[in-house]
Amino acid sequence: MRVDIISIFPEYFAPLDVSLMGKARERGILDIHLHQLRDWTHDVHKTVDDTPYGGGPGMVMKPEVWGEAVDAVIEDGRAASGGDALPRLIVPTPSGRPFTQEVALEYAEEPWLLFAPARYEGIDSRVVAEYGERLRTDEVSIGDYVLAGGEAAVLVMVEAVGRLLPGVLGNARSVADDSFAPGDMANLLEGPVYTKPPVWRGHEVPEVLLSGHHGRIARWRRDEALRRTLDRRPELVARLDRDGLDKHDRRVIEEFEERLEERRSAAASRPGFRAAPEDVAD
Ligand code: ADE
């Protein structure tokens, strides 16, 4: 996969030389090209931003420099491949669509990704309007918080996508067992994991994992995934495919909900209890 990244901080991407991504690059599985956006400016100060129309705080990245940069990088990539391929353009922004494991899997199928991370208040919106007509263009958010710029989001996305490319993880591990992986793990968090020793500071490894019984271990892992998801991300449980749940799954969910209800009523009967606002009738 070819990956182009245009940024005013290309040095930000040094971590892509390390560990799994570094190896994927060495092996030629991941072909990453970093570009300095300021190379496409024409003034002595190499200006990439300007004040926002309509007023307000902060600065907005200028469309001309992004246009020249994106055009040149596409031209370059096409010349290198000798074809007429076009990249998928990804613009990280907190106001984008959520980046999920499903999106990572979709991107992992692409031969060429072009990332355009912004600094300041973002890129003039006409850039996405322009390339949205010429390329498949996505504005993507990695979470409901605001970073100082899109670079960290690009690192996150390249790593999430890169590890899915064939040959990167090797045969030792299947990405099908990951949290959120489509299939059995869709909308589920992975449960706890353990290694040797069997007892550490008095904490024991669950007996079933030492049993060597593959069926029971698989069942236990699924139960733990369900319990952890119910506890930490109940909104994901609501999205579980009900037809994909077996009798045992349903029992685990019911038991968890019963215990939760018991804890709630125990808390409610304690002196000094005040109902949460959502539990108070209007
Ligand atoms: N740039 C700033 N915050 C971001 C976020 N949460 N996701 C993607 N890009 C961003």
TrEMBL record:
* Main EC class the enzyme belongs to: transferase
For the ligand (S-adenosyl-L-methionine), the binding residues are I142, G143, D144, Y145, V146, L147
Source organism of this protein record: Microbispora catharanthi
Q: How does it assemble?
A: Homodimer.
Key words of the record: Cytoplasm, Methyltransferase, S-adenosyl-L-methionine, Transferase, tRNA processing
What this protein is reported to do is described as: Specifically methylates guanosine-37 in various tRNAs.
- Region described as Disordered: 263-282
Q: Which residues form a coiled coil?
A: none
Q: Which GO terms describe its molecular function?
A: tRNA (guanine(37)-N1)-methyltransferase activity
Q: Which Gene3D superfamilies match?
A: 3.40.1280.10, tRNA(m1g37)methyltransferase, domain 2
**Gene Ontology CC:** cytosol
Reactions mediated catalytically: guanosine(37) in tRNA + S-adenosyl-L-methionine = N(1)-methylguanosine(37) in tRNA + S-adenosyl-L-homocysteine + H(+)
Location relative to the cell: Cytoplasm
Tell me which Gene Ontology terms the entry assigns under biological process: tRNA N1-guanine methylation
The family this protein is said to belong to: Belongs to the RNA methyltransferase TrmD family.
Q: What is the primary gene name for this protein?
A: trmD
tRNA methyltransferase TRMD/TRM10-type domain segment(s): 1-238
* Origin superkingdom: Bacteria
Q: What is its EC number?
A: 2.1.1.228
Q: Could you tell me which Pfam families the record lists for this protein?
A: tRNA_m1G_MT (PF01746)
Protein's recorded name: tRNA (guanine-N(1)-)-methyltransferase
